[in-house]
Specification:
Strand content of chain A: 15-25%
Bound molecules: flavin-adenine dinucleotide, iron/sulfur cluster
Number of domains of chain A: 1
CATH topology of the largest domain in chain B: FAD/NAD(P)-binding domain
Largest interface: A-B, 41 and 58 residues
Distance between the termini of chain A: 21 Å
Largest sheet of chain A: 2 strands, antiparallel
CATH superfamily of the largest domain in chain B: FAD/NAD(P)-binding domain
Helix content of chain B: 25-40%
Strand order of the largest sheet of chain A: 1-6
Radius of gyration of chain A: 14 Å
CATH topology of chain A: Alpha-Beta Plaits
Number of helices of chain B: 15
Shape of chain B: elongated
Number of domains of chain B: 3
Number of helices of chain A: 3
Distance between the termini of chain B: 49 Å
Oligomer: heterodimer
């Protein structure tokens, strides 16, 4: 199988996006690079980016695993919820 | 709906929730299942191997009607380096017996089927609804809130899976500790049914379960697993959360790397990605079991961290089914007494303690300690490669005696005492 980017993989999944309702909130002022990079490396959907000394997050494409919350231990990720009912990822295989 | 009062509300239509619903409905109880996915199974992911015994007790011969993928008749365990794999393969006629059989499953399909079984018995499912909060009065759980809706019952079963913010809000379960929790990233790769049987050397309808250590987690505590489905493969990498960041590779990169490994690449050749998923799995074992009951509430399945995660297998699905059933049995008895206090519900824990759930969890209580021996993930795959590579390589160079090349390889990986020590720990833990 050819190498695939995470974006392409997410493109195959079925989502009900809830664009205006982020279910995860980060602390944009958190600065510890090491901790931020752990979250960046942890997210299976690659939704965390570290750019110009800042952490950037986009909730669309979230696989709803909870890894970012567990890895950041309350530091980078401030609020973590599942999306509201019926929104977000819909697994057809599982 | 707020006027309706149920005998029991179950949060989560996974295996634990739907089994509990099925058992309660069969006993004639009014039960409501609240599921955040648009249908039962829409949010659920597993590695993919269901040990059938627990469900067999509830639906005898379930495999003939349930959407199972393949019966597992072949086990593989590999220690992998970047270029090599040292593999043990095992198969036995006994694996085909119904009483001991295990099956690869895809949860989106399987959970939907189980929920329909519960529905057919009279359980009510509301899907696409996220339970946001618990309703607690005078210390007793009385129901759940979802948006503006309040739903009440004599008792609530939280079967809402590994994260369970609801159990955390009740103080029954702690936030998942990084060193006791792993992330699993998974791909389901579509392939022709016959091609799968040929590549894995299995008969039609039969399949292979494969655990891999070393290379997949880049030496971190973790590994990979591969299960053959009917016409797809489930391939996942699992990595303990506290290990994340130690490798130069990110979690999604680790999975992509396994797909390119010379052992795996030819097996997934021409495969088509059908789905990309991620899910947490606990690995603290027995020591991670939270408070299982309180006035008006019980925890079942992953919400109660009921998982065994050891080198050769991951088990959580049969525990979810059994704990769902026992939670329901507890409630049926509580209903007869008309008392849903913690003291009546405590029989849940007694039943669990006497079941295979807690017996097996206790039996493997030392497994998390075993996993802390980093050599298993770092040095031993290399040692195996060095020994077998020298044994099997014939290139005209003078042959050396086994002891000549095995001893240095062993020394490099910590020496014979270290190996014996880990061997002892393994014997105690497994
Ligand atoms: C990578 C990986 C590999 C695994 N491999 C295996 C294996 O091979 N064999 C095995 O036996 N086990 C395996 N496990 C473990 C197994 O998947 C779990 O133990 C099992 O799925 C637990 O079932 P459950 O019903 O308790 O929880 P889940 O299946 O997680 O179900 C929870 C349900 O609750 C719903 N829910 C959650 N919150 C809410 C809310 N607030 N409101 C409404 N609904 C909600 C969810 O949508 C979901 O339907 C693996 C796990 C992982 C991550
Ligand atoms: S929940 Fe999982 S997929 Fe979603 S942002 Fe966190 S780590 Fe990424």
């Amino acid at each position: 199988m050819k190498k695939m980017s995470v974006d392409d993989k997410l493109g195959i999944n079925k989502f009900y996006p809830d664009e205006h309702n982020p279910h995860i909130e980060i602390d944009p002022d958190f600065k510890d690079e090491r901790e931020i990079m752990r979250v960046v490396k942890a997210c299976p959907a690659e939704l965390y980016k570290y750019e110009n000394g800042q952490v950037i997050f986009n909730h669309e494409g979230c696989l709803e695993c909870g890894t970012c919350r567990v890895v950041s231990g309350g530091k980078v990720v401030r609020v973590w919820h599942y999306p509201v009912g019926s929104m977000g990822i819909e697994y057809r295989q599982g | 709906m707020s006027d309706d009062r149920f005998d029991a509300i179950i949060v989560g239509a996974g295996l634990a929730g739907s089994t509990a619903a099925l058992t309660l409905a069969k006993a004639g109880m009014e039960v409501l299942v609240v599921e955040r996915g648009n249908w039962a199974g829409a949010k659920n992911v597993s590695g993919g191997r269901l040990y059938g015994h627990a469900l067999e007790k509830i639906i005898p011969g379930f495999a003939s009607e349930a959407p199972i993928e393949r019966k597992i008749t072949k086990e593989r365990i590999s220690l992998m380096t970047e270029t090599a794999a040292t593999t043990i393969e095992y198969n036995d006629e006994d694996m085909r017996r119904e009483e001991t059989a295990s099956y690869s499953v895809l949860r989106s399909k399987f959970d939907k089927w189980l929920a329909e079984k519960a529905e057919a018995e009279g359980a009510m499912f509301v899907t696409g609804i996220h339970a946001d909060e618990m309703i607690v009065r005078d210390g007793k759980v009385c129901g759940v809130k979802a948006g503006d809706e309040e739903m009440e019952a004599d008792v609530v079963i939280l079967a809402d899976g590994v994260n369970s913010p609801l159990a955390q809000s009740l103080g029954m379960k702690k936030e998942l500790a990084q060193d006791q929790t792993a992330v699993g990233v998974k791909e389901v790769i579509g392939l022709d049914e016959k091609v799968i049987s040929d590549r894995f050397g299995v008969a039609p309808g039969e399949g292979c379960a494969w655990m891999m250590a070393g290379f997949p987690s880049d030496g971190g505590i973790g590994g990979a697993c591969l299960y053959t489905n009917k016409d797809s493969l489930s391939l996942a990498v699992v990595l303990t959360a506290s290990e994340i960041g130690n490798s130069e590779y990110s979690v999604p990169q680790l999975l992509e790397r396994v797909k390119q490994h010379p052992t795996i690449a030819p097996l997934i050749e021409d495969g088509k990605l059908l789905e990309y998923s991620a899910h947490l799995v606990t690995e603290g074992g027995y020591n991670m079991i939270p408070t299982l009951y309180r006035d008006g509430v019980l925890l079942a399945g992953d919400a109660a961290n009921m998982v065994i995660n050891i080198a050769y297998t991951v088990r959580g699905m049969d525990f979810a089914i059994e704990s769902g059933r026992l939670a329901a049995e507890t409630i049926i008895k509580a209903k007869e007494k008309g008392d849903f206090s913690a003291s009546t519900l405590s029989s849940y824990k007694t039943m669990l303690d006497n079941s295979f759930v807690m017996r097996d969890m206790m039996h493997h209580a030392r497994a998390p300690k075993l996993m802390e021996h980093k050599e298993i993930f770092t040095k031993y795959p290399v040692m195996a490669k060095e020994v077998f590579s020298e044994m099997f390589t014939i290139d005209g160079n003078p042959r050396r005696h086994l002891m000549k090349f095995a001893m240095p390889a062993l020394k490099k990986s910590g020496g014979i005492f270290k190996l014996a020590g880990i061997g002892m720990d393994a014997l105690k833990a497994l």
